[in-house]
Structures are given as structure tokens and as C-alpha cells.
Amino acid sequence: MYTIENFWRPRLKGLSQSTEALVRGWSYCGAGCDSFVEAPLGLCAEMSTSIRVEESPLILVSAPGAVGKSTLAKQISFECEAIYLDLAAAEPVGGNTISGGILKSKLPELWTAGKVAIMIDGLDEARLRVTQEAYEAFLVDIAELARDRDVPTVLFGRTGAVQDAFLVFAVNDIEVPVLEIGYYDFSKAVEFAMAHIRIVRPDRANEDTERRAVSGLINGLSQQTENDGKRFAGYAPVLQAVAGSVGQASNPKLLVSALERGDVPMSLGGITSAILDRERSKLERLSFSDQSLSEKLYTSDEQLHRLAAKIYRANPPCVPRMTPRDAEIYDSALKTWVDEHPFLDGNGKPSSAVFGAAISAWAMQSREERLEDQALHIELERGVAANPFFTEFYKPRTEGDSSIFIPAAHIGVFYNSLRAGLSLGDSASLIIDDDEEALEEEALRAEIEITLSRREVEQPRTWTFSTDLTRVILLGPYIEDVAVSAKYATVDVGSGAETTFVAPVTIQCGKLQLGSERVVVEQPVGKKISDVFLEAVQFVGNKITMVPTIRGEAKLSVSWPGSRAHPWTAFSSDPTQVVDPREEEALRRFRKFIISFRSHSKGSLRRFKDKLEHSRMTKGSGRAVLEALKENSIILSVGFMYELDPGALLVTAGASYHDCVRRKYGEKTILFVRAILDHGVVA
Question: How far apart are alpha carbons 435 and 371 in whole angstroms?
């Protein structure tokens, strides 16, 4: 493992702090974190390079959202006297960001002498604020300045941002090793939580009891999330929530007893609910003339409503009728309680990602129109910087037919939250598919499937929902590994300066709204599929005037009325027209099977067997097509999943994945499907 003591200190030795004023966002960290507990930091095997990390002038440090990148960057800066550069606070990045910052801060001599090192934090935020060209110029500037230096320049970012930077460097023939921040093991997790408790309760009288409570909660969380690699039990914000729950307990012994009896829910929701309940107990200190108010006020919902109103600048909740005196007492108490609520940091912002997720999820499901709209807009715009804990607090409702329902507008936020928790080597995909049975009944509904694959967990995890297509599907400005097939739906993507599509992305819909000024299409790192296909009956994208930027070997194809006009001319693609309706339907089933395969965490293209064998997929000629694909070894059985063999697909059926995405079929593919209709399985 690469620790501060055995790796960072030797690599950053001999640095000197300048006495000159540094530019905005650049600083020396004058103090370390009192509760700092070093997380494991290892070399990423998913993105290997020939250059050794011990010698590289550039180093990328990756982690899922909220794992502790900024904390580590600041601690390294403090202990090694390096400069900490917060890209979220600095000017938007460009080709002269680092070189200009060095010059304006009067650091050239120290830089040349190897006396200055920079820890660059916030690649995610930087990428969202500028165009792709500006961001790439920023990275190339760093590489040029770092070349041949013994002292490394280090860049910190979430998984997606690091993959993006790694790809940019690779395109420019620059090898950069990647280190990945891991999760705390059990003993380190307990140590982390106890360090936070000591800050709020420096007396050591109850330390043994508090440690038992912390151990019980962490162990319970680990067991509850075992199917997801036990990750939450080693996640810094989760451990902060555990510390808050234990550290604020008036009697830790009672908490330990409740844990041992099983009275405390072992989940993030259970932990946050316990804190909300504890906050509500403050009502006991107030002397209302109407005693019934103690049963009505400061409930968990009211607390979350007040916190959300403060964060999103909306109106606070209404309260029951009460006497002027009781109203004065309560109002006076609220001024202190809300500002000092453990879910806030004292500046009107969430005190941790966990508590922020609890507040935003409540707001989006509150049915308070302004709160929902504000929270939805802010969370959707986060894109790659989404809160990884949102999905833990967002509770889709159950419909009358027992299906789990999620509003179309919320799909993007939910999916982005899951992606925010990915580590290098993990994968996630979103599929939105017409519910054909509902369409036959003239009901505009769709089935949603989200799949999450962890590199160290054999069986992927899935979420299945239904949604109402009378509302707009909102996906946000960053779309990765998404497939939409909903011919009557309106899909809204992007806003602001730029929309990024990271392959594979397939969107077929009634109306496609693209609200940004430009489009970037990216090839994914380590993925076999690099296609982006956008098809709509109606396209609205008046702000797009520049030709889309294609990165790597990504392929973009579009199809809608007017798609042959600038700036889409080079990407316009007309699907193959088939006269025979039976062949057209069979080709539609054939395509649906092929493009439903997604990159698995192990690198292959896989799909759950039960998903391919579902009646929605096998209707009409679907069953015969599936059997033919299996019989010809185009689709292989691998445990509980099917795996696609692209080579066999091309040799036997004359089609590539790219052909199927664009609905471009050659004669061999049409003959293959025709034979299935005429004779069943083709061998």
C-alpha cells in the first residue's frame, strides 16, 4: 500500500513553501485533519502502464464519490508541504491553468528547482465547468509542465473523471499510473469513527462503551451490504454518520443494549432516523401550554422539510395552530435547532454526503413542488459528481399491481447516484424499454432496469422499476451506458455548455430534447462497445451549432428528420428498410437481443438469462430468434447469464454490434432471420 510515510514523503521530500501570495484556489494547508485515518491506497490493475508509480512525474488518484479524495489530498499537502489546488474554488481550467498559476504565484524558480509539488483536487468539478477542448488543454498543460520532473504532480478525481483523464493522456501518448483509494477494513473503520467521536466528546469516560456501539453498527452495516461487497461499512461518510449516532447518544450503554437486542436498524436509514429521533427529543425541554404539540411538532418529516427549505431556499413547512406564546417558544427554539442540526455544517450546507442524500431524497419525494423541482434540478446537474448515497434514501413507491414505480423525471438522478459509487473495474447500465403489454392497452408505460456489477462480486445487482411515459425522461448532461427504447417517450438530455455521451448509449424515442450547446461522444475505458446511436421522430436541439466532438474510437450515429443537415451531416444514418412485416418484426427482436448485452465487470458482454427469456423479449418471433442465437453459439450460457460472442455474430449472422445498434442489416443478416421464420432454429 502507498502510505504517506512510505511513499508520499519520499516522493515529495525537499519541498519549500513560498512566501508569495498564491492565486485563487491554490493554498498551503496550514493544518491537518484531527480525525484523519489513512485509507488503503493501492495501484489500479484495471488501468496498467509500463511506467512505475515510484518514478512517474504524473500520478492519478481515483475513488468513488465521497470516499475521501479531498481529505487525502489535503493531508498529503499538509504533511509534505505541497500546494493544494482546489479546482472547484479556482478559475475554470484551460490551457494555461497550471503554467499561469505558477507564474502568477511567482513560483517558476521553485518549480524548476523541484521545490514545489501540486496536489490537484476536483477533476470532476473542473470537467463540468468547461468545454472538452479546454479540459483537455488543461491536462496537456499539466503533462508538459510535469515532464522529466522527479517531484510528481498528482491529480485526484472520482472514478469517471480519472478514467476520462487517463484516456486523454493515452491519446496524447502520455502514460500515467493510477492509484485507487480503497475502503476501510473493520478495524480501520472503527478507528475512523472513534476519532470523530473524540472530537465531539473529548472525555474518555465512555470510550469502551462507545467502541462497542461503533463496532456493532459497523458490523451490522457490513452484513446488510454483503451482496454489494460490504462497501458501505468502510465508506468515510457512512462512518461519520455512525460516529454522529454514537457520539450524540446521551447514554451509550442504552445504545449498546438496543444494538444487542436488535432494536436498532442496521442501515443508513436506521442510523439517520435515530439521529432525527434524538433531535426531536429536544421538544421535552419546551414548556408548551398545549401539551399535545409535543406529539405533532419537529417530526422527522418536519425536520427534513426545514433542512431542505434552508438548503434549497424554499418555504418552511406549515405547523399546527397554536397560541401566540407557544408559537414564540417554538420559533425561538427552531432558530437554534435548525442552524445547529447535525445534518448541516453550520453554513447551511449538508455536513456529510450521507445527510445530504437524506435531505435531497426527501425533497424530491416530498410533493412540495418548489422543493422537488429545486432538488431535482440541482441533483441532476451534478452529473458525474452525483451523491452516491441518494439511492439509499430514495424510496420508489409500490403501485397497485405491486410494480415498483419511479417518476420518469427521477430516473437520471437515481442512476447517476449508483454510478457515483463505482470503483475502477465496476460497471453499471440503465435500460428503459417500452412495456409492450401496456402499449397494447394504450397505457404509456416503460420498464426500467438498472444493473450494477462489482469487480469483486460475482453476481450483479439489479433494480427493476416501471415508469409513466406521459412525463419527460430526464437524464442530465452526462449519459453513460444507457439504452432507451420508448417510441412515444420524450427524452431530455443535457443543459448548459455541453452534453457528454459515454458509449454504449442507444436512445430511440418519440421526441429527443438536447438542451446544451455542444455534444461530446467518448469511448469508454476498457469497454468493448463504443457506439452511440440517437434516433427520434422529433428532435429539438437548436442550441447545437458545432459538429460533435468524438474521442477515441467512439462511433456516433443519428437518425431523425433533418439529421443530414449541419452539424449532424457526417453522423446521419438511415436504418435498413425491410418490406416484409414478418421479417421486420423478427429483425426488431434480433436487434433487441443483441444490443441488450452490456459490458460486465469481467470485461465480457453479458445479460441475465431471465431478462432475455422474459415474455417481453420473446413475444412473436422472439422465442425462435433467441433459440437460433443460442443454437449457433452467438449467445453462450454462462451460469445465470448469457454471453454474447461478437465474432460468431458476424460470421454466422453477418452482423456486428454496431450494425445492430444502427439497424443497418446486410443481406446475410436478413437471410439469417428469414431462415428462422421459415425453418425455426438455423444451424
Answer: 31
